[in-house]
Amino acid sequence: MFQTTTGPLLRTHHLSLVCIIVVACCCILLLSVSERTCNAFQPVTTTTTTSRSSSSSNIYTSTIIHNTRRQQQKQQYQVRLLSTTNNNNSNQDNSENDDNDTTLFMKSLSARMAQIQRQDTQLPIVVLDTMLPRQRLKIEVTNTAFKALVRHCIESERPRFGMIGMVATTTTTNNSNNNDGPTNTPSNMMPLQNGVEVELVGQPIVVNVQDENDGDKEETTKQQQALRVELVGGRRFRIIADTLSTNPTGGWTEAKVQFLKAQEEDLRTDSTEDVALSTTTIGTTTNTDNKNNDNDNSIITEQEDPTSLASAMKLAAELTNGDDNLVDQWIALARTKEHFPGQIDQLLRDLGDIPPFTMPSDRAMWIGALINPLPGMGVSMEIRPQLLMARTADERIGVVYSAIEASIAHMDGSKPLF
User: Fold this and answer.
1) What is the pTM assigned to this prediction?
2) What gap in Å lies between CA 45 and CA 52, rounded to an integer?
3) Closest listed residue to residue 324, CA positions, set 388, 401, 410
4) Are the C-beta atoms of 305 and 343 separated by less than 8 Å?
5) d(CA 349, CA 372)
6) Distance CA 187, CA 172 (A)
7) What is the pLDDT along the chain (418 residues), one digit of tens a residue?
8) In angstroms, rounded to a whole number, what is the distance separating the alpha carbons of residues 183 and 300?
9) How many other C-beta atoms can be found within 10 angstroms of the C-beta atom of residue 311?
10) Which pairing describes strands 166-174 and 183-191: parallel, antiparallel, or unpaired?
11) Peptide bond before 375: cis, by omega within 30 degrees of 0?
12) Would you state the torsion angle of the CA atoms of residues 297, 302, 303, 307, taken in this order, to the nearest 10 degrees?
């Protein structure tokens, strides 16, 4: 009974196990089939997704690269534009700076030229002796204002000032009751209006000089310091009327001057300017009359003849031409009248070569400096003031021509002057 019951149970148990195993196998089989199906479809799906993702990524990347390039190009363009703007601004600034520098330079140059022009026409004036161009003069200066002027010229590096001489004026009186004609009466000494610009040669030397005491003769003489200077004559000038003034610092006299050029004077005739200036010329003869004279003949202004320059050149050439070479004759005679050996040779070295006859005014000044040296030799009449005040070349040559002939006659004894 026991066995009959157990057998069917075992068979039922085994059947259940088989069913379970079969179901499990079916499930495994189904899972396998399902996995294969999924594997079969999975590559297609993955490839499509990857392809789409890759395409989308490429498009995005391309867009980014394009945008990046455009941004870089824009930035480069902005940089170039900014650089160009800066360069333009810099060039404009440089141009403006250059314009400003040029303007400042021109203003400075104009101011400097005006200053030089003022300095060139405003001269200190010393009344000492009449000098001619090229002449040399050595003096010892004791005057306080003169010494201050010399120091000022050295310190300012403009070692030049004007020098004028003195001339004695005469008064001509026409007496109607006097059958002997007009009489000339010596008058005052007055400074000339024309002079020369002199230049300091070398450095002044301080020396001690004797100063005569104005008191008791028994008192000993005093010593004072002086400046020993050497001067050389340069350009001729005319003092412009009513321009004299006193330097507030040094106390010397100053004036505006007009420099005279021989070439221009030789080529022109008398002008209205000469008439105006001649009315203030210092050292001319004053004419007075006992009767009222409405026409003042004290100032004589002559219109220079158009042929006067040719006449002046002819006379200037005759002074050094032929056997009657007046200049050589004078030099030969003057060597016998020297105050010290070599005086004439030194004088000729100082004057240099004689100007050509085509420059009659310069030649007249040269001959005047030769026969009227400084210090004087006492062999000629004083003609330097006349030469400085003469207004035409013909007049200047006439002065020296007559003076050198008279000096030769004096030295050879045919017609003494004194």
Assistant:
1) 0.63
2) 11
3) 401
4) no
5) 15
6) 10
7) 344 444 554 456 567 777 788 777 777 777 765 555 545 444 444 444 444 444 455 555 556 666 677 677 767 766 666 666 666 665 665 666 666 777 777 777 776 666 555 556 899 999 999 999 999 999 998 888 999 999 999 998 889 999 999 887 766 666 655 555 566 666 678 899 999 999 999 999 999 888 755 444 445 567 888 999 999 999 999 999 889 999 888 889 999 999 998 766 666 544 434 433 333 333 333 333 333 333 333 333 334 456 788 999 999 999 998 778 999 999 999 999 999 999 999 999 999 999 999 999 999 999 999 999 998 999 999 999 999 999 899 999 999 999 999 999 999 999 999 8
8) 19
9) 15
10) antiparallel
11) yes
12) 160
Going by C-alpha positions, the residue among 247, 144, 127, 141 that lies closest to residue 204 is: 141
Q: What single-letter amino acid sits at 355?
A: P
**Closest Cα partner for 194 from 116, 142, 127?**
127
Secondary structure of 171-209 as H, E, C letters: EEEECCCCCCCCEEEEEEEEECCEEEEEEEEEEEEEEEE
Other Cβ atoms less than 10 A from the Cβ of 7: the count is 10
d(CA 133, CA 362): 9
The full set of domains in the chain, from first to last, is 128-212+229-260+270-302 (2.30.130.40), 304-418 (no CATH)
Measure the CA–CA gap between 55 and 63, rounded to whole angstroms: 12
Q: What six digits make up the tokens of 9? A: 């149970």
